[in-house]
Amino acid sequence: MAEAMEQDMRDKKIEKIPVGPLGLIPLVGCTELGSRVNDWLVQWRKERESEHKSTIAFAGYQKDSFIIQADTPRFGSGEGKGELKESVRGDDLYLMVDVCNYSVTYRVAGNVNHMSPDDHFQNLKRIIAAANGKARRLNVIMPFLYEGRQHKRSGRESLDCAMALQELVDMGVENIITFDAHDPRVQNAIPLKGFETVQPIYQFIKHLLLHEKGLQIDSDHMMVISPDEGGMKRAVFFANVLGLDLGMFYKRRDYTQVVDGRNPIVAHEFLGASVEGKDVVIIDDMISSGESMLDVAKELKRRKARKVFCCATFGLFTAGMNKFDEYYQNGFIDRVLTTNLIYQKPELLTKPYYINVDMSKYIALIIDNLNHDDSLSGLLSPTERINRILTRYRAGELDNQ
Question: Residue 3 in 3-state DSSP?
Fold first, then answer.
């Protein structure tokens, strides 16, 4: 499958000239993912054949690296600035930012500060400000949507995500690419600009099949579970493309008190058919503390599920890994899958139950298509690719991938 996709990219029929020379700017905290994306783009464009590549419209189409060096230094007071180290005039720029990477630090009056989402977002705006008026087009790849959990107003409170999107658009950003937005309706804040929220369903299925042998993917042996009502659309799509039954838990909360900014969960109630003897896939957008995911997994095991696989686009693990270790040792969870779209703790990558879902190739595909002004619909609707990999899995052809 991987070889076939790479061949497709090499043989990609060039029907449109690029919007401009491609430029990739991974901001601090996103450099590792940016480097992986860059490697794919360099490889594909060097191997791609086209009679047009020698024309002036394709100037800079092939490079040893598309990464443009940028810096966001800090003063001793904690103030900062954005600085480009090379010209971006006429470039089609793709800025990559990981707002969740708290491992990046800076000093304020001699004290060490860990970068918050606010700091990363401010750095993004600084680089946009440094490039604006010079670049041909500005595009932002923001896997974890900044303030995506504050996407709607309840009472007298701020509407942070909508304001942030409008701020980026006002600064000249044309396209915003995010993954598994908490609520994609937030794009209504910028109706005249490009906004895509991408689902990594295919990548989850692919990596699960590569690591788990002997799964029977049919409604008699497997189910998809949504841990809450808010994630039903995601789970319905997952279940439909695999031809599986669907179950859902809903949370009973205590609305008389607020703990850590939310109403505490009293119990998880299940709606759906029996899970006894079945493998179950719990699908959600993020694992924050992991409390909900683990409670659901334990409840499914109590109902005699065979194997429990926890899939989440973003693995924040804000409460650490000890609880996950404990649940794995007690047999409540079998696998945990999250992507490398945000910062991953080094210890996470060493866990025997953890599967790292690499998204760099997918991001590179999106960037390559956008740079040619090609449609993204084929990438955003992976049903055909999912069917192909299921056929190969059932035929036992994924062993060496």
Answer: helix
